[in-house]
Structures are given as structure tokens and as C-alpha cells.
Amino acid sequence: MSSKNASPEITALLARIADALERTAPAHAQPADMAAADAFVWHASPPRLAPIRNVNRVEMALLRGIDRVRDQLHENTRRFAEGLPANNALLWGARGMGKSSLVKAVHAEINATRAPEIRPLKLVEIHREDIESLPALMSLLRDDPHHFIVFCDDLSFDTDDTSYKSLKAVLEGGVEGRPGNVLFYATSNRRHLMPRDMMDNERATAINPGEAIEEKVSLSDRFGLWLGFHKCSQDEYLEMVYGYADHLGLDHDRDAMRREALEWATTRGSRSGRTAWQFIQDLAGRLGKRLS
User: How many separate domains does the chain show?
Assistant: First the structure.
């Protein structure tokens, strides 16, 4: 039946159906102005890259007690920025030891020291809940001339969570795979990105325990570079405290600072870079020192 012969009711119904289909169709990501910033946050709905001109980061020199992993991540990132082969990286381990801070610090260091002929390296943060939109983000970045570090902080997956499949497809699988100008960096408290009790439960209830968890555990194998962060010793913790204090010019008796910093860590039951920085903020406040 042609539209000319259709009744007004049918015409109106077809128009409403067309409008509904248009509204439910996935929105196309708008190209971002890559010159606007060196760091962006990916928003899945509507799909877009939001520029971040002032990144919340600390200087590389202030990250103490993680020298080995710092150097490994820096070298991996430098090679990638220069167009050489490099690996996706999983930074896992103890809370507060500078995993996400290191990613942001390395990104800034690479851009500050790159040769003039090398384009700036771009950092794109994706939130854990937006992992399923990774294919759309990859499509947006694939043909851009820049190199990108796509970064997800505190990545992990729980029972019945299937969004990890999107990440697996991007890292190695799928028809298109990961674009050559994109690396994926993630931080997690879990080495295999899933809780131990979840792995034990699946082993206990499955007919074939090995196959039951193979798909999820194999996700971490897609990261060629595993960097472990472990709880720091008392000496390493104090080194962090002193490093922050010297960098910020805090004039305080060193013995008193040591005693107060150890008491601060004891009351929190934790020694880490985060704990050291929280103590320094408290100390600076007591000394009337403003932090930029």
C-alpha cells in the first residue's frame, strides 16, 4: 500500500514508529578536538570525549618506593609514544601505593620530554561502568594520527558481570582488534580482575572447574605487562613523607615529623603513598602552608 492510499491513522502510526526507532538508535560519537588538551574523559552516553586541561596528578619525582615498576611503565610508554611495539599494562596490588598516580605521572613525563617531531601522547580515561562502550571509543580513536593511552582506574569484575567480554575483544580478540595507536592501561587491587571467592565458587560448582573460570581469568593474560604494587615498609613510608615535605617546603622538625607520621599511619592501619600524602596535607594545614 502506498503512502498516498494509507489512512491518516496508519500514516501517524508509521511516523511514531520511525521516531521511536530514531531515538533508540545508538548515537554516533562526535569527533573531539585533540588539540584542546592532552587528557580526556570518555562519556558513553551520549558518546563523546571531554577535554581535561588540568589533570589531577603528582610529579614523577614524588612517587617513592616504586622505582622498578615506575621505570618499566615509563619505558613501555616511551616506546609506544615513539611508534615502537609496546604492551597493554595491568597495575595491580596494594591500595594507595600510587598505581593511578603513576599512569598520570608517566603520561606527563613522556609529553614533557618527547622529541619535537613526536606528537603529544593523549590520555583517555574510561570509567569502569562504561567498559561495554569500548568498541565505540576504539572506532573514534582508530584513524586519529595521535597515540592514545586508554586508562581505566580500579578495574574489576564481579559475579554475572559480562562487560569484561568487551574488554577482551578490544585487547586481542575481535575482527578489528585493538587499533595500533591505542594501548590500554588499567589499575586493580586484584591480579586476575575478579575476587578470589568468585573463582573458588566457580571451581566448586562447575562440571569442569578449569573451563569454568578460564574465560574470566584469561582476561588478565591480555595484559603483556603486569606491574605489582606491594605494601611499603616503614622506611619507604617515611621516605615518601620526607619527599613530600621537602618538595612543598614544609619547615618542621624532622624528629617530630617522623613521630607524627608514624602515629598517623598507625591510627589508619596502613602505610602507603596515599597515607603519606594525607598526613602531609594535615601537617601543611597545621603549619598554615597552602598547597598549590
Answer: 2
Q: How many CA atoms lie within 13 A of 142 on its CB side?
A: 13
d(C-alpha 127, C-alpha 187), whole Å = 12
Residue 12 lies in a domain: no
Q: How big is the CA angle at 270 (ends 269 and 276), to the nearest 5 degrees?
A: 130
3-class secondary-structure state, position 247: helix
Give CA–CA dist 55/276, Å, rounded.
21
Q: Would 7 be classed as within a structural domain?
A: no
For residue 49, the surrounding DSSP H or E stretch is strand 47-52
209 and 156 in a common domain = yes
For residue 174, the cross-strand partners are none
Q: CA 188, 194, 196, 197 torsion: positive or negative?
A: positive
Cis ω for the linkage preceding 135 (within 30 of 0): no
Assess contact for 34 and 121: CB atoms under 8 A.
no
Which segments in the chain show pLDDT lower than 70? Answer: 1-6, 18-30, 159-163, 172-177, 192-218, 292
Cα(121)–Cα(205) distance, rounded to whole angstroms? 46
Cβ atoms of 248 and 111 closer than 8 Å: no
Give bridge partners of residue 91 from the DSSP assignment.
187, 227
Residue 15 maps to a domain: no
Cell numbers 574523559 correspond to: 41
What are the CB-based long-range contacts (under 8 Å, 24+) for 284-290? Answer: 284/248, 284/250, 287/250, 287/251, 287/252, 289/248, 289/249, 289/250
Q: What is the pTM of this model?
A: 0.79
CB atoms inside a 10 Å sphere around CB 83: 12
* Whole-number pLDDT of residue 214: 61
Residue 288 has what DSSP assignment? Answer: T
CA atoms within 13 A of residue 117's CA, in its CB half-sphere: 2
Residue 209 in grid coordinates: 572447574
